[in-house]
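Lecture notes, unit on binding sites. The following record was shown on slide 14. It pairs a sequence with zinc ion.
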Amino acid sequence: MVASPTTITLACLRDQAAAAARLEAIAQRTSGEQIIQAAARVDAILERVRREGDAALIALTEEFDGVRPEPLRIPQQELAAAWEQCPAHLRRALELAHERILAFHRHQRPSDLAVTGPHGELLGRRWRPVERAGLYVPGGRASYPSTVLMNAVPAKVAGVGRLVMVTPPGPTGQPNPTVLAAAHLAGIEEIYRVGGAQAIGALAYGTASIPRVDVITGPGNLYVTLAKKAVYGQVAIDSLAGPSEVLVIADHTARPEQVAADLLAQAEHDPLAAAILLTTSEALARSVPAAIEAQLSGHPRAAITRAALENWGLIVVCEDLDQAAALSDCFAPEHLELLVEEPEALAERIQHAGAIFLGPYTPEAVGDYLAGPNHTLPTSGTARFAGALSVETFLRHTSLIRFNRQALHATAEAVVALAESEGLHSHAESVRQRLD
Ligand SMILES: NC(=O)c1ccc[n+]([C@@H]2O[C@H](COP(=O)([O-])OP(=O)(O)OC[C@H]3O[C@@H](n4cnc5c(N)ncnc54)[C@H](O)[C@@H]3O)[C@@H](O)[C@H]2O)c1
Ligand SMILES: N[C@H](CO)Cc1c[nH]c[nH+]1
Ligand SMILES: [Zn+2]
């Protein structure tokens, strides 16, 4: 008996209102009702790390990762050894990625600002790096040497004094060796083998082994992302760079096999990953599920990928590209691929996306590894107000103001009037005291 071929169940909608509602639900897959239990667990983990420090990190790593990370810190000689033992072709690939990411991020360094006001007063803004940055490199369901580079390069370009990297240990007790090799290449010296919400807690509060930092950057799963959100305020964060997502807008020129591969490339990250196709081509909408099924056959990550697509996958047939652009903006995807005849024109119509990939020769994977721009990007609709990890994430700016006698006299009456209108007597007096 020949088994009949199955085709993945991928929701396909034609009604735009229904599509908008479904996109909203997909964007909310990491918030609201569904994740209340995970959020409560994260709060308990953070509280335990705050109270018990290293002991909590060791116990929680044993519980979630199955190994006791003692000592927590990776000896520095192991980083150099990992680089030496890294196969030559992989070293060359890491070097190429490092070179390209570095070249792009060097262009991001912002300039200080010095403006002279109408009375010769100096008004300025200067940038300085934070002193300590915590870099999260995920390592649960996959390992991410590329994320080492995406975190470390902008931090180094910004001039951060101390980089503290955390990443979960694998089943051997050590992090993935290519992650350690990438850290060596990027010049990171301080690495702790702890991941998840507990690692974020350690970076936010500090423990006997792990220093408290000023900013935490890097992507992670639901637990990591909820923890970053919870500690924000105690420490800065880059963005909520959670479970991956891609939205592809495609017309009749797109090839179903390429669209399928690009959807699968995000779905394979995490069962909570999202993969969405908006297309003006009925034929493409019909052929993509079969192309997905074909590529899932023998796929080494089929279970994760299938779960993501069946829960958070969607195909929408749109009347035109304007409709597709409007739906995409409602979702504000982490990654937006434009597989259409005129991608530049369509990109102009897009308001919200973490990164836009234009044309058939730009699979999202080039951005993941080596195009140059950062792959750490906001997810779950947060691209409406946040952007990619960048050099500025590791910098803060300070205003500079120097008034002279003339500027103070010329503006005193207005300052006094405003201070008195606010009922703040001494504000006004501090100006009056300086008038001749
Ligand atoms: N948005 C981006 O820029 C971007 C970039 C790269 C990767 N990602 C995402 O990063 C994530 C990587 O996830 P991952 O799981 O492979 O690695 P991870 O390092 O983010 O998470 C692994 C850790 O999660 C914790 N954990 C697992 N199950 C838990 C549970 N039931 N309760 C509490 N804690 C638990 C464990 O401590 C474990 O060490 C994926 O979702 C991927 O899509 C996002
Ligand atoms: N697509 C991920 C961002 O969502 C980044 C990544 C790293 N390696 C592979 N993919
Ligand atoms: Zn990826």
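Take-home: The first helix runs from residue 16 to 27.
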